[in-house]
Amino acid sequence: MRIVLRDSFTIYENPAPLLVSRQAIFPGLVRFDDGELLAMFSIGQAFDAADMRAHTSRSTDGGQSWSPPKPMFRNRPDGRLESESFKPLVLPDGTLLATGYVFVRPDMVTPIVDPETLELLPLRNKVSVSRDRGRTWSEPLVFSVEGQPLELSGPAIALASGRLLAAAAPFHLGTDNHEGWIIASDDAGQNWRRLSVFFRSEQGNVAPWECRLCDLGDDRVAVLFWAYDAQQQRNLDNHIAMSSDGGQSFAPAIATGIRGQASNLMPLGPDRLLTIHCHREDPVSLTVRVLRLRDGSTAVENECALFSGTALASRTEDIAQQFASLKFGQPSLLRVSDSHVIAACWQVENCQHVIKGYTLMLD
Hints:
Layout: E1 3-12, E2 23-31, E3 37-44, E4 53-59, E5 70-71, E6 81-90, E7 96-105, E8 123-130, E9 141-143, E10 157-158, E11 164-168, E12 180-185, E13 193-199, E14 206-217, E15 220-229, E16 234-235, E17 239-243, E18 254-255, E19 263-269, E20 272-279, E21 285-294, E22 297-308, H1 319-324, E23 328-335, E24 340-349, E25 352-362
Antiparallel strand pairs: 1-25, 2-3, 3-4, 4-5, 6-7, 7-8, 8-9, 10-11, 11-12, 12-13, 14-15, 15-16, 15-17, 17-18, 19-20, 20-21, 21-22, 23-24, 24-25
């Protein structure tokens, strides 16, 4: 199967960059049955700004033009600052579910990560629903799974049974006690519980960040994640963990041989995946691949770089410097038809954080 990059487009960029700072990050895309697209992303005055708020934008022409972004939620009446990140899922009944997290901010200038201790600000997981295709949203509700702050940076998925699954790691920057969880909801996303652990290294030193999952059918679930060795402070191959019982248990994770960081995936059949990977260390690129799953291993059948260049590289001295120097990330894939896929990510372009889209054809 061949991947062809047909064109690129901008979902959002600051319309008045000389007057105000409006930086956009962390996009997610969904498609409704009539072809309308909805993008969900966060906008604030800087990448880690305390005023980073969730917004939505819409397209009725396949992504070539987008409506002005609209905030999902009102400002908190108590004035509390929370920087937001949510991702969308269309449920079988047409309801939109947004899951994600907020960091509770004490003021406008305290960073999310303490540069000396690497301690994080309080993280709260939240969920909201929309019954009018994302025009209005319920007040976000806090939910907790065993009291852990989960890096719920990707959307949930809906299984044929109606159960919802999401993948996340209890988020911290320590050198051990890292693992990846599957959480489940049987009431349309209002309550969540830990279902399983999809990954834990022998010493707990490998963090499974930016987890993304997909349903391969017949109770098969795949999770793709950025593996980071917190003791050695180095990025490892992206790994895939596979389940054959609806996410209740997982075989040992497979190293893909792809040295990426943030990544995503979608099914192309029972034994093929379309994946997208952020390569932020030399050679730098955002690359889409067709992967075949074979008896506990993966093989790259084809690939296509959406962009490349060392100007988008990250610093690699330590994880704090890597996080502080990211220039693109959180890629996603949305199937529009059998041969048409839209990829999206945030990217620094002309000194602005913008939301980009890419039209891909499969043949």
